[in-house]
Each structure stands twice: as C-alpha cells, then as structure tokens.
Description:
Elements: E1 2-8, H1 14-28, E2 32-35, E3 38-42, H2 45-58, E4 65-71
Antiparallel strand pairs: 1-3, 1-4, 2-3
Helix pairs in contact: 1-2
Amino acid sequence: MLVIVCYDVNTEDRAGRRRLRRVAKVCESTGQRVQKSVFECQVNLAQMEQLERRLLAEIDLDSDCLRLYRLADSKGCEVREHGRFRATDFEDPLVL
C-alpha cells in the first residue's frame, strides 16, 4: 500500500529543530521525499504501523502535527505531478 506522511514540526526552539531532523530521518528510511515535509512510502500494514510508532515517538503531540494517509491500492489512486521533482514509481521495473 502507498502511505503519504505529512508533518509540521514546531521549530521555534532547538528541541523542535532536532525533532524535525529526527522525523525526517525516520521518513527517509522508509520512503521518498516528495516535498519538504511530505513523503511517499510503499509499505505493508506491519511496516506502516511500525513507521507510525517510530514517528509518534519523535514528535511532540502538543506542538507538532503528523498525518498519515493510507491508500490501499496505488493503482486505484491518481497522482498528478507538476514541477521539477518526479517521484519513483515503485510498481515499474527498476533500471540502473
């Protein structure tokens, strides 16, 4: 399944800037960055639950925001991209 992770971390203090880096590292370890605070992750249900637990361990629920969108069938959803970045299609063959 395709999971979209979006977050907004309060970076007004040093602790917030550290949280932001840690949240980004968790997301980078699982998916690809498509915008500054938005990641696409191709995972199964167990991996999604683990990702959510890891992210919840990093954010401050009183000052940060975390959203995960689960799209059960990536073939059934439409993504329209505009601009410079082009995401990797995980369903297509990988050519090196």
